Each structure stands twice: as C-alpha cells, then as structure tokens.
Amino acid sequence: MRVLLTTRRGAGHFGPLVPFAQAFRRAGDQVLVAAPHAARSMVESAGLPFWGFDDPPPQREAIYSSLDGLTEDQKNAMVLGEVFTRLDARVALPGVLDACSEWWPHVVLRETCEFAGYLAAERRGIPHARVGIGLGSSEDFISEIVTGVLADLRAELGLHPDPAGERLRGAPFFTLTPRGMEDPAAPGPAGARRFRELNPGVSNGLAVWWPGDERPLVYLTFGSVAPTMDLFPDLYRAAIDALADLPARVLVTVGRDRDPAEVGPLPGNVRAERWVPQRRVMPHAAAMVCHGGFGTVRMALASGVPMVVLPLFADQPHNARRVAELGAGIPLERGPAGIAELAEAVEVVLDDSSYRGAAARVASEVRTLPPVDAAPYVLRGLLDL
Predict the structure, then answer these.
(1) Cβ contacts of 252 within 8 Å, gap of 6 or more
(2) What does the alpha-carbon distance between residue 89 and residue 53 come to, in Å, rounded to a whole number?
(3) In the prediction, which pLDDT does 226 show?
(4) At what angle do helices 138-156 and 116-124 cross, to 10 degrees?
(5) What is the pLDDT of residues 108-130, one digit of tens each?
(6) Alpha carbon distance 147, 52 (integer Å)
(7) pTM for this structure?
C-alpha cells in the first residue's frame, strides 16, 4: 500500500504523523510525506521521503499582524480559516494534486490542520484519513471554522458541495491521545482510534552535562515556533534567570535555527542546547517547563512527567487548562507576563508528589492502548484497502 502523508511545516503538525509513518513502513507499506519546501530538512531528518509543495504565501503575515485585541478563539478562528485554509491550502493544492497524480497513493493521511490533502484526495478519488494534533475537542472547532472557507476551494475543484462538513468530519480519525487526557465534555470524534507510540521515552543517549550531580532535572522548552518570534531570546533569558537559584539542573532547548549563545551567560546549573529529542529527555526529567504545545504536553504526560505551562498562542491556553484539570501541572495563565511566578510553580511541582502521580495516571492509561503498529491494519479495515 502507498500512503501519502500531508502536513504543514511546524514540528507540532508533523510530529504526530511520524509514528504512523514509521508504523506503515514497518508493515511493509510505502510512504511519502508532502509538505512545504521549507519542511524538507524536518521530514528528511525523520528518515522519511519528501515531496515538496509551495511554501505559504507572504500575505499571511498581514493576517497575523491583525490579531492583536482578539480573544483566543477569535485568533484561532482567523488563523484556521484565513491562513491555514484560504491562503495555505490554496497554495499547497497544485503540489499535492501532482503528488496524487504521479505517485498515486492508495490513501492520503493528513494532520488535521492540513487541508490540501483532504481536497486533493477527494478530487482524485482517493480515500483519506486524519491524524489529530491536539485535544479531540478541537476537531469540531476546526470543522466549524473551515467548512465555509473550503466551500470556495471545493467549487473551484468541481467537487460536490459539503455545507455541513460531513466529508471533512467523516474521515477516519487516529490519535495518540488517551481518552483520559481529553476534555470529558468534548472528547473528540466518537469513532476515534487511539494508539500509543512504541517508545514514548528512550532512556539512553542523554549527555552527562553535570557529572555526579543528582539534583532533579527540569526540562525547559518553548517549542519550535517561539524561537522564530520576538519572544526570543528575552523569554528564554527570563526563564533561565527565574530557575537559576533552584536546587535543580535545567536543560534548555532553543530550536534548531538558534545559537544557544544568544541567551547569554548561563548559571552553572543550566545547559542550553539547540535541540535534544524530547523522548530522550523524558525518562530523566523530574518536571518540564513548556509553552503548552500539544505534542510537548502529550509526550510529557505519556512519560509521567508533570509540568509548568506558560501558554503563548494557538491551542496552548486550552492545553494548559487541561493539564491543570488533570492535576498534572500548574498553568501560568498570563503566559510570559507571569514569568515571576515560574520558580515558585516549579518548586511546587517538584515537591508535591500529587502532580507526578496525576501525570503517571495518564502514562498508565497510555500503556493500555494498542501500539501504533496496529494502525495500518485498522486503516485497511476501515477503508477496505
């Protein structure tokens, strides 16, 4: 079977697809990842073959600049509808259509914020499925926002109208999120198929930066997008200074495209690196400080690691609140403006075992899920492939 995976550039979009891509390959299937040209190194570094399509257009920057003063949901709706769909999907469509015509996959598997794959699959008569990149509650919100915008693109492609978004919502939905991590009031698509990664944490391969130092390790990351914004390096510097006097070791990652030296001199208990695979850090971490990106939060909880969350944008405030509801961490809901509260929050998470216990309960549920290697066979059954 040939599986075309389609994704946006960001690690938070691509990351959840990787375990599924690897599972298909282990099952003997061929995979190809279609993504913006700027994502080539990200895809190829995961050991996956790459098909490039046009990068997002510059007009999107004007939309991002217009978001000040809007509520969280208004910002997310604008980005989903106008950036991800009206601009980005339109630009991506020719390249994804070409991939479908030239490689002719048996199925298209997309992350749920990439819409060119959905449109191209229907245009070429290829079944499609989706992989969640956030809490299941986001799926209804996504459908509600993008269905009307997609109507124009559907018409241009000669596709039948789908005013209620039934085709969008009806595709099989795969996720690495356990049900217990979901919002009980909105757990996501009723037919969601939930899986676990084979190795959410890998204990070997983490360098020994503090020989003989047995103090707890705190992992500090603000994801892959924050280092590209004006938040860098000031937010990182403020967080480092806040944690400098804690009786803990602190590992900071600043992103592949940044130099750790940009954050300035480091205290003896702090080590800054461009990038370290999170799965290698988790078995060693006593706590995490993060931005609330869903992939980061999900892997931490799957590894039983509690956290302090400083949400920055997108779905991060929702994720931070869900971490608090689970009892697995402390949200600093003012985001960067709450940096003065960071040290105390980390101390609480380290000292109060209830936070680690709550994270461990999520990790225990994850271990009961079927392995991701079952996904290729489940998908074949659902789509009669």
Answers:
(1) 220, 221, 236, 239, 240, 260, 263, 270, 271, 272, 273
(2) 11
(3) 86
(4) 50
(5) 999 999 999 999 999 999 999 99
(6) 26
(7) 0.93
